[in-house]
Design a protein that fits this description.
Length: 306
């Protein structure tokens, strides 16, 4: 019989990963409104933006403005994604105290996503972690393409483990494994995550799962079976890396929360409120997202983001 965690922690990444590939710009005030609804829905961790090149990711061009508008009185941890030292400095200067320092375990993806070879990226993240620690930041070390790469295929797990150990030695506070291409399966999730849990000791291990091949919730379930209790999600199943061919969204926040609550696993998430965000953004972008529950639950008394 499988043993599941009594609760899971969800980090909402719809504001960053969910929006980053959308062509229609979402104004800063609308992003801040969404952040407010996410916090009201009981989500305690929200990745609000990324500090990246606005010429490459125009949707994140207002990163500083978003941070200036955050309501710091809310019971929520705000974070941002950073890919290099400049991004980390921008995030710290914008007032954030928590950053996700992210690099890829794939050399080809690293070159496309961050304009750096894998050895260069490893040096880069070492400097990011050192600089972040000097500035008193809480740093989540994140590896992309852990479970496979559309360009290179299988990623050697030993490379992943070596990179995780390297970051732990540098003092990261949390670990995150990203299935950026959605190539993971329940067995690979358990095999790799079990070793990473062992390496990480008492540090939280997050999974960032994409649903490209339709295995997202199955992978989340498999992760829970080995004790993973921290997950990144995006409202409506939005998102996807703009530099990965065929990339699709994350596992849906409301889908994971709904399934977990049915299983007796607490999330603290008001599914109705998150579903309202997803429906309103489908109307805004005039498209259908990959998530399911936001189309099943449709309470008219829940305020939507306009």
């Amino acid at each position: 019989m499988n043993s599941y965690p009594p609760y899971i922690v969800i980090e909402e990444q719809g504001l960053r990963d969910g929006l980053q590939s959308e062509k229609r710009f979402v104004p800063t005030d609308k992003k801040l409104e969404i952040i407010g609804v996410v916090a009201d829905a009981g989500i305690k961790r929200i990745q609000v933006t990324s500090f990246v090149n606005p010429k490459l990711i125009p949707q994140m061009a207002d990163a500083e403005d978003v941070c200036r508008g955050l309501d710091w009185s809310r019971d929520a941890l705000y974070s941002a994604l950073v890919l290099n030292a400049k991004g980390l400095e921008r995030a710290a200067d914008a007032g954030l105290r928590h950053v996700a320092a992210s690099i890829s375990a794939s050399d080809t993806h690293s070159r496309k996503n961050a304009n750096a070879s894998l050895p260069e990226a490893r040096k880069r993240i070492a400097e990011m972690i050192k600089n972040g620690k000097k500035r008193g930041l809480v740093i989540r070390g994140e590896l992309q393409c852990v479970f496979g790469c559309r360009f290179e295929g299988r990623i050697d797990p030993n490379v992943v483990f070596d990179m995780i150990k390297e970051q732990l030695d540098l003092g990261i506070d949390e670990v995150a494994l990203a299935d950026s291409t959605g190539m993971a399966n329940p067995i690979s999730i358990q095999d790799i995550s079990t070793k990473v849990i062992e390496l990480s000791g008492d540090k939280h291990v997050f999974l960032h799962l994409h649903d490209t091949e339709g295995k997202g919730l199955a992978n989340a379930l498999a992760a829970m079976q080995i004790g993973i209790a921290h997950f990144d999600t995006a409202f409506g199943g939005t998102g996807g890396c703009p530099f990965i061919k065929g990339a699709s969204g994350n596992i849906s926040t409301e889908d994971l929360a709904f399934m977990s609550e049915q299983m007796g696993i607490e999330t603290g998430v008001d599914v109705d409120k998150i579903a309202a965000i997803s429906r309103s953004l489908e109307a805004y972008f005039n498209k259908q997202f990959s998530g399911k529950i936001h189309r099943v639950i449709d309470r008219e008394d829940i305020q939507v983001v306009r």
